[in-house]
Amino acid sequence: MTVTAKIGVYAGSFDPMTYGHLSVIEKANGIFDYVIVLIATNPAKTPTLSREARVYLARETLDRFASTASSSGNVLIYDLEPGRLVVNFAFAVKAHALIRGIRTGFDADEELKLAYANDLLACEIPTVFFPADPELSMVSSSMLKVLLQHDADTVELCSTHTKEFLLSALGHADDLSKATEKRIYQRYLTERIRVHKRFSAIAS
């Protein structure tokens, strides 16, 4: 008998990934065989970081700060092509569920609306909600940017790399070096190749 891998898709802008996102990923990782962190662009927002930088920082955060299980090959990172629906991607990789994180009651209301919309588009793929850890319940990418602009201590909210990238993008630090930009793009390409290879296995 062939056992089908359980795949969960966790979509978001991750601009950038915070430890709040990480807590949701680690909880989902205990339920699914594979968690695909899908970096998308919210049409209602202008991202601070490039898609390449968001992929780079997400992988860096997972590799350096997640548990051994979450930093291994069963957590994949992929960027969604502009204009493509998350549910269409989920169908393509034969996902079993869409993953959403909830921090507050306001989050719950907004996430339920999104879940209802996704259900109309793809009723075969349910939405599974995971609460962020209580101490991270107020952490968001938007709040992180505000805190950094006011020189607040963010060591409990994001990685040092993430802080450096955001400060540069927000104009509060020197621009990234050409070598760093090259490293970001190389990591981005490596991640895409890695994910495409794995997709051919888990979506077959």
| Helix content class | 40-55%
How large a portion of the residues is in β-strands, by DSSP E? Answer: 5-15%
Radius of gyration: 17 Å
Give the beta-strand count. 5
Shape: globular
Determine the CATH topology: Rossmann fold
How would you classify the helix and strand content by structural class? alpha/beta
What is the CATH superfamily classification?
HUPs
Mean pLDDT: 82
Do you know the CATH architecture?
3-Layer(aba) Sandwich
CATH class: Alpha Beta
In whole angstroms, how far apart are the ends?
Answer: 15 Å
Task: Give the biggest beta sheet.
Answer: 5 strands, parallel
Low-confidence stretches: none
Major β-sheet strand ordering: 3-2-1-4-5
Number of separate domains: 1
Description:
It contains eight helices and five strands; from the N terminus they run βαβααβαβαβααα. The chain has helices at residues 19-29, 51-65, 68-71, 86-92, 105-121, 141-149, 160-169, 178-202, and strands at residues 7-12, 34-39, 75-79, 97-102, 127-131. A five-stranded parallel sheet has the order 3-2-1-4-5, with helices on both faces. Helix 1 (19-29) links the parallel strand 1 (7-12) and strand 2 (34-39). The radius of gyration is 17 Å and the shape is globular. The mean pLDDT is 82.
